TrEMBL record:
It comes from Streptomyces cylindrosporus. Residues 35-146 form the Knr4/Smi1-like domain. Coiled coil: none annotated. Transmembrane segments: none annotated. Pfam families: SMI1_KNR4. This is SMI1/KNR4 family protein.
């Protein structure tokens, strides 16, 4: 079931298609999803020091303020997502990982040693761990990443 327009204002595009699939499969309870205001989106962008990927921005608008138990325990929701870039940069420095993060938009973390970022050049999502030599591509887009991330959790 596609979320009803009277509950939320959803942007058109790839994210809403994935979101509707997750709702239909019972992996997300649409009644518990809350998004961010435009001011809060700007706060996330400032914290990242980068523009927001359009699909990630739609995720922020729809469900990053919370979605019940979905993705519980992961650093993906606001305000916990603030500072995620600084955490990833610190991990890289501490682990001696030499990689260019200038085009990276960090979107999720698992316990401070696994980070996921969108490459702003092509929209692909990469995983970076304390054992990484280089970031590993895990999905072609944020929406594809989110679908797999929620289904595996």
């Amino acid at each position: 079931m596609v979320p009803s327009g009277d509950q939320h204002a959803y942007p058109a595009g790839p994210f809403i298609t994935v979101y509707a699939r997750l709702v239909a499969e019972g992996l997300i309870d649409d009644r518990e999803s809350r998004g961010l205001s435009e001011g809060e989106l700007e706060e996330v962008s400032r914290d990242q020091g980068a523009p927001l990927d359009p699909e990630y921005a739609d995720f922020l608008r729809c469900m990053v303020a919370g979605s019940g138990r979905t993705l519980a325990g992961e650093t993906v929701f606001h305000p916990a997502v603030l500072g995620i870039r600084a955490g990833a940069e610190a991990m890289c420095t501490e682990s001696g990982i030499d990689c260019d993060l200038s085009r990276a938009l960090f979107v999720a973390s698992h316990q401070g040693y696994i980070y996921y970022c969108v490459d702003l050049a092509d929209g692909a999502v990469h995983c970076l761990t304390e054992d990484s030599a280089v970031p590993m591509r895990v999905a072609g887009s944020f929406s594809a990443f989110l679908f797999d991330f929620v289904k595996s959790g």
